[in-house]
Design brief:
Helix content is 82%, strand content 0%. The chain has seven helices and no strands.
Length: 173
């Protein structure tokens, strides 16, 4: 049971919409931050230089910063791939407007999102290993699947409850 207090369809709809808005915001934020990768890494690089700290994470960030700056200097068109990554996040966020408007009718979008969250794991562990991504970074990538999956699973459960409440209301009328 989601809550010990029975929810009205209106209150349930508000909770569903809040979860969807949080998911959309996360997709938009993730997408927007994919555009200025070199700038973001420069900030991290500056901080690492100032703190004079060294561990696996800072070493990875430094390696990534060097790779991005070298690649962008010599082959700036490669960054176009991350532009498309950012664009994909923004487009996927737009798709979630459907369940924001009518969650019961568009529950398939929530299901799609949950499947995508699960699919993060094989991508992170297979492609990440093939590309030499450290395990701690692949686990960090998987955390997006976990958090997103939990948000969407909670949303899905609430949408099914809303569907049931709407069905009961329609049969009573």
């Amino acid at each position: 049971m989601l809550t010990s207090v029975p929810l009205s369809p209106g209150a349930l709809m508000k909770r569903i919409r809040l979860l969807i808005v949080l998911f959309i915001a996360a997709l938009v934020f993730s997408g927007i931050t994919a555009f200025p990768i070199e700038w973001e890494l420069r900030i991290a690089h500056t901080w690492i230089q100032q703190c004079d700290c060294s561990n696996a994470v800072t070493q990875w960030i430094e390696r990534t910063y060097t790779g991005i700056t070298d690649t962008n200097a010599r082959y700036p068109f490669i960054a176009y791939g991350t532009d498309w990554l950012a664009f994909a996040h923004l487009v996927i966020a737009i798709v979630f407007i459907g369940p924001l408007r009518d969650p019961v009718r568009n529950i398939w979008v929530i299901e799609f999102g949950m499947i995508a969250c699960v699919c993060i794991f094989p991508l992170a562990f297979i492609a990440g290993a093939a590309r030499g991504i450290p395990i701690f970074w692949r686990i960090l990538d998987c955390s997006f699947g976990i958090i997103g999956g939990l948000l969407l699973a909670s949303c899905y459960t609430r949408i099914k409850l809303l569907e049931q409440l709407q069905s009961e209301t329609e049969s009573a009328v």
